[in-house]
Design goal:
about 425 residues; alpha+beta; six-stranded mixed sheet; four-stranded antiparallel sheet; 19 strands; about 20% strand; elongated
Length: about 425
Amino acid sequence: MRLRLWLIAASAFLFATPVAAELSKPEQVMIQTVDAEQDRTVSMLETWVNQNSGSLNALGVEAVGKLLRSEFEPLGFKVEWIEMKAAGRAGHIVARHKGSGRGKRMLLIGHLDTVFEPDSSFQKWERKGDRGIGPGSGDDKGGMAVIIASLRAMKAAGTLKPADITVVLTGDEEDAGDPIEVTRGPLIEAGKWADVALDFEGLAQKEGKDMGSIARRSSDSWTLIVSGRTGHSSGVMHPEYGAIYELSRIVDTFRRELGEDKLTYNVGMIGGGATTEMDADRIRLNATGKTNIIAATAVARGDLRAISQDQIDRTKAKMQEIVAKSLPGTNAQISFDKGGYPPMAPTEGNRALLARLNRVNADMGLELMGELDPMDRGAGDISFVANDTDGLVGLGPAGAGSHALGEFVDIPSIARQAKRAAILMSRLAKERR
C-alpha cells in the first residue's frame, strides 16, 4: 500500500514539474551553436534595426530584404523577392529550403517592415544591459533574428538538410497593401503547401512566464456615416434629433448590446456638426458647427476583433440592425472595409503543436508554457493560413513597447527562443507527413 501511494505521488510530481531529459547530440549542438553565435545574432539584429523599413518606405523594406537574402542563401535556401509595387508596397521575401520530402512541411512567418517611417524620431539601435532598444527590435526584426539563429543552429547540427521549409517575410504586415488578396497571395499559397505554420512575432509573457499562443483574433475596420435634417436648435427633439444624437445612440448601443466572449469593437475616431469632412486616408476629420444648429452630419470609424468567422458575421449583422433603427429625421449607413485580417481560431491541431513545443521545453529543463488568452494578442499574418494548416504564434523574442517610441527586445530571450525553435523544427522534420 505504501509503495502504491509513493508511486502515485511520484507520478503526480513528474506530470506537474518539467523534467529535463537527455537531449540528442544534434540537439546539444544546436544549443551550443545558438549560445556561441549570440553576439553575431545581436550584431545582425542591430544592423537591421538601423535600416529604416517603415511599411511605406519601399527602398528601406527592400534593403532589409537584401540583408535577409544574404543570410538565407548560405544556408541553402532559394530566395525570391516578390514585388508588390502595384499594391503600393515594396514586396516580400520568400525563401525555400528543399529537404527530403518525408517530414512535416514547415512555413515560417515574419515581416520586414515596421510602423516607424523615415520621419519618425525613433530610428537607431541602443543597448542598455539586456535591452536592445530600437524600431522593430522586437516587432519583427527580433523575430527574424530568431529565425536565422535557429536555422544556423540546425545547419551546424545537420538537421537542416532533411527539412522542408518555406519562409515568408511580408513587407507590409504593419500596413497591408490593397487588395489584400494580392498582397497575401504568396503567404496563402505557402500555407496550402505547409503542414505546420510557425509565427515569429514576439513571445507573449504573463506574470513573468513564457506563454504559448495558439489563436489570434481578427481585425476589421468599419465606417459609420450619419445624416440628419438640420435647422434651428430650438426645434431639436420636436421631432428632429440631428446626426450627432443618432450617431451617439448607435455607438452606445454597440457598447451595450454587442458583448460576447473574445469580441471587442473600438470607436477610434468620431466627429459631427453642420459639416463633417473625412480625408482620403480616413484618419482625419474636420467638423464645423454652432451650438444653435442641429447637426447635419456625423462620422465615426472603428474596428472589430473576433475569434471566429461565425462571430464576425453574427456581430456585423447585429451592428447593421442597430444602425437601421434610426431616430426621427436621421439616416445612418455602416460599411466594413475590405482587406481585414481573418481570425486564427484555437484548434486541437494548434494545441497539439503547443504540446510538442512543451515537450521541447521539458527536455530543455524549461518551464512548460501555458495557453495565452487570444484577448492578449493582436491580429497577424498567420491568420491568413489558419484554415489550411496547424499553427503556433509567438516564436520571436520577448520585449515590450511594440509600435511605440522606446520599443525594446529582451536580448537573452533571443537565444532561448532560437533553441526552442531549432529543436522543434528538427523534430517536426523527422515526423512523417
